[in-house]
Design goal:
- The complex is a heterodimer.
- Chain A folds into two domains: about 110 residues, D-Maltodextrin-Binding Protein, domain 2, CATH 3.40.190; about 230 residues, no CATH class.
- Chain A is built from 20 helices and four strands.
- Chain A has a four-stranded mixed β-sheet.
- In chain A, helix 1 crosses helix 12, helix 10 packs parallel to helix 14 and helix 14 runs parallel beside helix 19.
- Chain A starts with a helix and ends with a helix.
- Chain B is an alpha/beta fold.
- In chain B, the strands form three sheets. Chain B has a six-stranded mixed β-sheet, with helices on both faces.
- In chain B, helix 5 links the parallel strand 6 and strand 7.
- The chains are: A mainly alpha, B alpha/beta.
Chain lengths: ~400, ~300
């Protein structure tokens, strides 16, 4: 109970100290702000494109403009249709100084020849040529109507023929396409959520590295250790930085979720709070415990984080090892590389989350083995970190060599 | 007789099979200032770190009499390590309250005491200053305050005066004395003999991890601060024993060291030396605690050549 209370005191101190630190506060907000900035800039670029509306003047001799308007609305085409009575031979001068403007000439001849003359300004959306083809539908309908076909016949012809493919497993399913999308979202949304948690807490876990090393540099470690055990200090740091990481997650979501809900028409909460979420979060937490124990142990062996040029500096790159597996896992989520990444303790948290977000059928045997490896690894690394931390945190003035660290582990 | 707060018995610690301290035994009593003396590398900090539970002894025992067996009452101990510092980017009051909180000391009381001590040490108005805005001396005062804020029963100070200016030194000495007078047991390590002589009640001197001298300042002075006469020349022990005023004799080949009684008068004593004595060299000097310490530090035989080497 006493040990726990000391651990909590250390954790609270680490949180308080960081919350009073300007650079931490900046980093707390800069991540979601940057994300939002990129997100909104991307959207802005898209909406800019949307805004390039083409004004389409229609010389309509068949009274088909209302049908064309319907087609524009149906296909959400960026067209502004306007009726015009201008003659075909006068438009050259009119279009010379215009942008995003087109003239259509629809008359009896259009139906007999099947060709509608379109004149456009020099500057026009590159998509216009494709988009305008969608206005052919009402003309085709009018053409068929003039041939004297019944409404049913018209409907059948205008519907066209589509080849629809289904796999065997899909035949056995009674649900429709909507349910399929839902199932994908039920995996991807918690997966994305867990990825953000993992990323945030691993980043804050990296701060433990600096914290342990800085404590040595400031020579306060021994003063702290006169009040608490090395185990308390280590646990306090791990818990403190975990909560700081979670704070980053909360701030991130406070910024992001309203924007995402506004821009993307997906009920995120509906897909987030599913039973899978617990497994995803569990994986993320195990990942944090693994990396934070390594960081706290190795951080305690360094005299100064900024002058390091040895192996300790490489340890901080361990979480990024997972990126090596992203390509192969996306290509084949059940392939050999995906399986290797699942069983390697340093890569398994990220690879598991990625695979489980993609895979339709979860490989439960692999998940259980991987979690077992991860739990055992966390236990081993916590023990090792404890041994290294105990000695390393009091060794002032120099970085510990791998040989020295090995000696401490064996003691 | 004051009650014993801490007992260290037959303490031993080795690194890589090399003994750092061996067979170290001493006690610290309530209200006394007990000094651990020795040259750099003698093992003073190792003893202290073992007491604090920062290191674990290979042999021997450490007993805190007012706590459960095998438990280090961390909240009752104040500690100022030799290698010390504070977090750079935190406020003075924050760090003081945090360290008091780690000792489970009530927050309100800690705040009040912190203000009193900051005023006492000339740091009034610095409560909200960041540690990195303070001078080195100010930082050391904050560290000292942190070690005593929670009213420890036992205060362990490892080289408390190193790197401190004389004005602060006086302030620290006064405060340490006052704490002892109020019943705090103080264990102080130092290599500054004059300070130890001035303020400590008892001392434990070590060299190369072993005990050299242990006792009250008074006893040590009685034992070592008399005159001694070092004679180079081959003399029989029987001849030397006949000389009056000789308390103890040590002989090493041709060199004889005569420890004299307290009441001798040097000139008269020299005049009364037998004429047949063989004297190639002779020195007569009073040995001080400082010299005992230097002798130990330079690894010479204790009390030898005192008059020749030291002023």
């Amino acid at each position: 109970m006493k040990i726990m209370s000391n651990t909590i005191k250390i954790a609270k101190w680490e949180i308080k100290r960081n919350l009073k630190n300007k650079s931490f506060i900046i980093s707390l907000f800069i991540t979601p702000i940057l994300f939002l900035a990129f997100f909104l800039l991307g959207n802005l670029a898209n909406s800019d494109e949307d805004q390039s509306v083409t004004t389409v003047y229609v010389n309509d001799k068949l009274n088909i403009l209302p049908a064309l308007q319907e087609a524009v609305q149906l296909h959400t085409l960026p067209f502004k249709l306007q009726k015009t009575g201008i003659a075909e031979d006068k438009i050259e001068d009119l279009l010379k100084n215009r942008e995003n403007t087109a003239y259509l000439f629809i008359g009896e001849q259009s139906l007999t020849d099947g060709v509608v003359p379109v004149y456009t300004s020099d500057v026009i959306s590159p998509m216009f040529a494709n988009q305008i083809q969608l206005l052919a539908e009402p003309l085709k309908a009018l053409q068929l109507e003039q041939l004297g076909l019944s409404k049913n016949q018209l409907a059948a012809i205008s519907k066209g023929i589509v080849f629809e493919q289904s796999t065997v497993s899909e035949i056995s399913k009674t649900e429709g396409g909507g349910r399929e999308t839902e199932k994908i979202l039920e995996r991807i949304v918690p997966g994305a959520f867990a990825s953000i948690i993992l990323l945030s807490i691993v980043f804050s876990g990296m701060m433990i590295f600096q914290s342990a090393s800085q404590e040595k540099k400031d020579k306060i470690a021994e003063i702290i250790l006169s009040s608490v055990t090395p185990k308390d200090l280590m646990q306090g740091k791990i818990i403190g930085y975990f909560l700081l990481g979670m704070l980053q997650v909360v701030v991130f979501f406070i910024f992001i979720i309203p924007i995402v809900l506004w821009k993307i028409d997906v009920p995120i909460f509906h897909y987030l709070f599913v039973p899978h979420l617990f497994l995803f979060i569990g994986i993320a937490l195990l990942g944090y415990l693994l990396f934070s124990s390594i960081f706290v142990g190795i951080g305690a062996t360094m005299a100064d984080i900024y002058t390091t040029g040895n192996f300790q500096g490489l340890v901080i790159l361990l979480p990024f090892l997972s990126f090596v597996f992203v390509g192969p896992v996306l290509t084949d989520p059940s392939g050999l590389w995906a399986q290797i990444g699942t069983y390697l303790p340093f890569t398994s948290p990220a690879v598991l989350i990625l695979r489980l977000s993609i895979l339709e059928e979860w490989p439960w045997a692999e998940i259980v083995i991987s979690l077992a490896i991860l739990i055992i690894s966390v236990w081993i690394f916590m023990k090792l970190a404890g041994k290294i931390f105990k000695v390393g945190i009091l060794m002032y003035g120099k970085n510990a060599t791998p040989k020295e660290i090995w000696t401490w582990i064996r003691q | 007789m004051n009650e014993t707060v801490l007992t260290v018995e037959k303490l031993g610690k080795s690194f890589k099979h090399h003994p750092i301290i061996q067979n170290i035994s001493f006690e610290v009593k309530k209200g006394e200032i007990m000094a651990v003396l020795g040259p750099n590398g003698a093992g003073k900090s190792t003893i202290i770190r073992n007491i604090m539970g920062i290191m674990y002894p290979d042999e021997g025992s450490i007993t805190f009499h007012n706590s459960q067996k095998n438990m280090i009452p961390r909240h009752k101990i104040g500690y100022l390590p030799e290698e010390r510092g504070l977090y750079k980017n935190v406020k003075v009051m924050d760090i003081l309250l945090y360290l008091a909180d780690l000792k489970s000391y009530p927050l309100k009381k800690a705040k009040e005491r912190a203000k009193v001590y900051l005023k006492k040490f000339g740091l009034e108005g610095k409560e909200q200053s960041s540690i990195d805005e303070l001078s080195k001396g100010m930082g050391q005062k904050v560290q000292f305050i942190a070690s005593i804020l929670h009213e420890p029963e036992l205060l362990i100070l490892d080289e408390p005066f190193s790197g401190i200016d004389p004005v602060s030194q006086e302030l620290f000495k006064k405060e340490i004395r006052s704490l002892a007078n109020n019943g705090t047991a103080i264990l102080l390590s130092s290599h500054q003999m004059n300070i130890v002589e001035e303020m400590c009640d008892r001392l434990f001197m070590i060299h190369r991890g072993r005990k050299v001298v242990y006792g009250s300042i008074e006893e040590v002075k009685k034992t070592y601060a008399n005159f001694k006469c070092v004679i180079r020349g081959k003399n029989d022990r029987a001849v030397l024993e006949q000389i009056s005023g000789v308390q103890r004799i040590e002989q090493n080949e041709d060199v004889s060291t005569l420890y004299l009684t307290k009441d001798i008068q040097p000139a008269k004593w020299l005049k009364n030396l037998p004429e047949y004595m063989i004297i190639q060299e002779l020195s007569l000097d009073r040995i001080s605690l400082h010299e005992i310490f230097i002798d130990v530090a330079t690894d010479q035989n204790l009390l030898q050549e005192a008059g020749e080497n030291y002023e």
